[in-house]
Amino acid sequence: MTAPQNKSFPVSWDQFHRDSRALAWRLMNEEPFDAIVCITRGGLVPAAIIARELGIRVIESVSISSYHDYQKQGELNVVKPICQDIIDLDKNGRILIIDDLVDTGKTGRAVRAMLPNAHFSTVYAKPLARDLVNSFVTEVSQDTWIYFPWDMDVSYAPPIRDGAQD
Ligand SMILES: O=P(O)(O)OC[C@H]1O[C@H](OP(=O)(O)OP(=O)(O)O)[C@H](O)[C@@H]1O
Ligand SMILES: O=c1[nH]c(=O)c2nc[nH]c2[nH]1
Ligand SMILES: [Mg+2]
């Protein structure tokens, strides 16, 4: 159980695209990669952007879910495992694992164990799991919840003087 995540970090589509591209720039120093393994669902969007920037056309997914009730993490559930062809490729150390973020690190650790030689990258990282990833773009504090553009909608914001939250 981690601290309550009572701060918020909303991310727009523009910002997410820019941050994912910044990660691709960083990964230029680590190339070449034979394949991307994205941790779905959150890893799908950054994986698409990075695959486009680095010219990677072999994309595998591993589906792991553990946040069943909004911010509450429960049992880790591997909904779709990695295919054997990609696990065999890991021997060369040229697999790139992509996710949107690491928080407690529980999800990332499980995938790391499946592909021990891979380079693991996320767009965002919280301190508890920062050391688990080989590269990331932005660190946010452990008590911050990141709101991704696919989880948000445009809505009315009350004026600050009427008690708007930042
Ligand atoms: O470091 P952790 O504490 O394990 O949390 C990070 C994971 O949590 C979220 O996925 P989620 O389980 O919500 O599934 P989703 O990607 O399908 O939304 C996020 O996309 C990461 O994969
Ligand atoms: O949308 C999300 N934002 C987060 O900060 C987070 N941490 C774990 N899982 C998460 N999902
Ligand atoms: Mg996820």
Automatic annotation (TrEMBL):
Cofactor(s) named in the record: Mg(2+)
Gene3D superfamilies given in the database record: 3.40.50.2020
Residues binding GMP, per UniProt: D103, T104, G105, K106, T107, W145, I146
Membrane topology field: Peripheral membrane protein
Binding residues annotated for 5-phospho-alpha-D-ribose 1-diphosphate, in chain numbering: R41, G42, D99, D100, L101, V102, D103, T104, G105, K106, T107
EC number annotated for this UniProt entry: 2.4.2.22
Pathway: Purine metabolism; XMP biosynthesis via salvage pathway; XMP from xanthine: step 1/1; Purine metabolism; GMP biosynthesis via salvage pathway; GMP from guanine: step 1/1
Family: Belongs to the purine/pyrimidine phosphoribosyltransferase family. XGPT subfamily.
Protein name as it appears in the record: Xanthine-guanine phosphoribosyltransferase
